Amino acid sequence: xxxxxxxxxxxxxxxxxxxxxxxxxxxxxxxxxxxxxxxxxxxxxxxxxxxxxxxxxxxxxxxxxxxxxxxxxxxxxxxxxxxxxxxxxxxxxxxxxxxx
Length: 100
Fold this sequence. Notes:
Layout: E1 2-9, H1 19-32, E2 36-38, E3 43-46, H2 49-64, E4 70-77, H3 85-99
Antiparallel strand pairs: 1-3, 1-4, 2-3
Helix pairs in contact: 1-2
């Protein structure tokens, strides 16, 4: 399964930023050992259903430790029996584009 998710606290720091709280969530993802990528808006993670959902829950809890309200956006691509999709999907698109 691939999941793209974004976790953010409902309360921001004095400067309006949420980086410190988001860093707590990303640290949970990094510690999980699952393949992942983080960009400016989302974190993509790959693994089995229970693994991925456990990481997302723990990341929400990490942000909830510093914010009374947490926002979670989640999109999942569930394709049983397939692995390596975190990079494989992008690679297939790149190969098609390189043919042009």
